[in-house]
């Protein structure tokens, strides 16, 4: 199995032991982490990216200490599938795993934050009408927490960009086979998280136009790519990426996750830097993309995400979230609240009044550092 050069040849991911820790920036800002992963035993590609063979809810809480994390959205990680039973339903095992993690967090024994308050399951839409009972099984396994599903569609003619991390056919979101299953998602009250590469954004634009009543959440701002055959072309391709986001934003039921730039797909100097980059540098590198996406979609359709632990190659959880807060610092308090809390709560239907970590009335004024 061939892995992307940036994954296999680079040094180890940032150590989780806190060696790169910096002071918390804006500690009072409440935060719903709209996108992170957990796994009891990670797939080879995810372990290579993150340096974490195992990453569970208590690991997330420990690394988030100091930030005012109030809740999170678990995103499928292709882990803990059922070992037997009907093939179509084996992925339901991951939802059972994620719901167990969420239930442990909801016990309150580990603090007021609610990890996995919303769950997003992995599905294979190409199974067509057979997907409906699978979705119903995920809903049952989620015990009221399942809010959406996701299927990766990342593909490029240059296989080195993705390698063995994701294996999707070209044009997946446009295919009749995919849409035969996709049509069952919206009617069950579920959203769809879309993961693809920036050169493929026209595919999700077409999907959103074909299914205007289904909420679609664009992961990682469409994954701007600066590796493989796109190396050195981030600046050149920025206007193309911006144009595609403008087209996608015309569909009112599309949200976008602000983050995901700290993995291997872009070409930022902060990735795998030694010593680890400070959040000021990371924020400076990410800001043009994040501010542009927020300007296009508006704060009420944009939600910040850590994409942890996949982002470990750029920094600790503390540093990644510090960088997001630095990007958001120029916005008003109301705008920051939408970016860090409101949009995620709206999209994933979270009851803010039921979140214990929001019970305090601490302010949200940025702290200089």
From TrEMBL:
<dbReference type="InterPro" id="IPR032466">
    <property type="entry name" value="Metal_Hydrolase"/>
</dbReference>
<protein>
    <submittedName>
        <fullName>Amidohydrolase</fullName>
    </submittedName>
</protein>
<dbReference type="InterPro" id="IPR006680">
    <property type="entry name" value="Amidohydro-rel"/>
</dbReference>
<comment type="similarity">
    <text>Belongs to the metallo-dependent hydrolases superfamily.</text>
</comment>
<dbReference type="Pfam" id="PF04909">
    <property type="entry name" value="Amidohydro_2"/>
</dbReference>
<dbReference type="InterPro" id="IPR052350">
    <property type="entry name" value="Metallo-dep_Lactonases"/>
</dbReference>
<feature type="domain" description="Amidohydrolase-related">
    <location>
        <begin position="32"/>
        <end position="350"/>
    </location>
</feature>
<dbReference type="GO" id="GO:0016787">
    <property type="term" value="F:hydrolase activity"/>
</dbReference>
<keyword id="KW-0378">Hydrolase</keyword>
